[in-house]
Input
Amino acid sequence: MLVTMLSNWQVKAMAEKYVEMYKSLGINIEKHNQLLNILGQYYGAVYLSQKNRPKKMDYFDFVVSEIHGLRIQELENQRKAGKKVIGAFCIYAPEELAYAADATMVGLCGGADFSVPDAEAILPRNLCPLIKSFYGFRLNKTCPYFQSSDLVVGETTCDGKKKVYELLNELIPTYVIEIPHKPDTQQGKEFWLKEVQAFKAEIEKLTGNKITAEKLKASIELINNKRKALKRLSELRAKNPSPISGLDALLISQISFNDDPVRFTAKVNELCNELEERVRKGEGVTEKDAPRLMVSGCPMAIPNWKLHSIAQEAGASVVVEESCVGTRYFTDLIEPKGDSIEDLLWAIVEKYSKIPCACFTPNDARVESVMQLAKQFNVDGVIYYTLQNCHDYNVEAVKIERTLKNRDLPMLKIETDYAMGDSAQIKTRVEAFLEIIQGKKP
Output
C-alpha cells in the first residue's frame, strides 16, 4: 500500500529494492527519491484519507505504490525478451497498433510541478505546464516511463507540443503524428488514414514485427475491452448517490494508460461488480443531495488531483469528466466493417476522428458532448478546467459557457497549473459556485 511510502526510510527502501534497475535506466536516483517522497505524502493525504472507499480500490492503491517500481520491472522484463515499449502523451496515438506489433504503449509523466523548474531553464516560462512538465521529466531523468521507452510518439494537438517535440527528439527518439483539424470531413479522414499507415510502418520498423490483420483484430478487441470496462464504471457514476468518489474514478482512468491492459480490465470489472452491489443497496460516497459536478476541459495526468480534491472536500460529487482521461477516451469503440488490414485501419480512423479535441475546428461535437453528458449524469454545474496558456481550451470555453447558459446550467472556469499555490483561491471559488448551485435548487 502506498501509505507505507509516507516515511522517508520507506522511500529509501523502495529505491534500494529497484536501485540496480534505476541505474541501468540512467535515472537520477537522488532526485527520483525526492519525487517518490512527495508523491507518497500527497497520495496519502488525498486518497487514503477518503471514507467509505470501495474495497476493490486496494488494487489501484497498490498500482500507484509500485507505479515506478514493479510496473517498470515488468516493462524492463519485456524489453529483455525483445519487446519494445512506446511512450505516448495523447489518446490520439493508436495503441492498438502498438499491441498488434507485440509492443507495449504507456503514458508518460507530465502531471506534476516537480519537473517544471528544470524545463524552464530551457523553455519559455509562459508555456503550458503539461509541456514543461513532460519535457522537464525527460531532462531530469526522474520518469522511469521515459527511461524505459524505445520510442516516444507525439501528436500535433497544439503548437507548443509540436515545437517541443523537436527538442525532445534530441533527448529520445520521438515520432510525431499529424492530426487533421477537420477530422469529420472525407479529406480529413483520408489524411488521417495516411498518418495511421505511416505510424504502422514506423512501429513495424521499430519492432521488426509485421502487423497482420489477425494481430490487429486481436489488439482492437484488447483495447475495446479496456474501454468497455471504463465506460461501465462511468455509467455507474451516473447513479445517485454515486457509488465511487470522483477522485477514485479519476485515478482509475489515469492508471489505465500505464497498467497492463488485460489485468487492468479485469480489475476494473471486479470493482464495477462491487459498485453495482452498492447501487443495489442504495449506498454511495456522498449524500443524495450533494451537488453533482462535471469537470470539462484539459486532461489530468498523475498526480494532478488538485481540482477533484478541492471539489470533494467542499462537499460536491464529481460524477463525470469530459476529458481525455474521461469520456473522450472510452465513449466510442473501434468497429471494423471488414477483416482486411485496410478495413481495420479505416475503422481506427473512424473511431479516433470522433474524439472531440479542442484543437478541432469547428468543434461543435465537443459542445454537444458536454450537453449530452450534463443530461445523462444529471449534473448541477460544470467546472471548466483549463491549464494556463492552453489557448485551444481557453478559447473554446466561450462557446461551452454560452451553450450551458442557454440550458440554465452554471459553469465555473478554473485556469491553473500544477503548483499548489492557488489551492486556497480555487477552494473559495468552488465553495461560492456550490452556493450558487444550492441556491438554484427548489
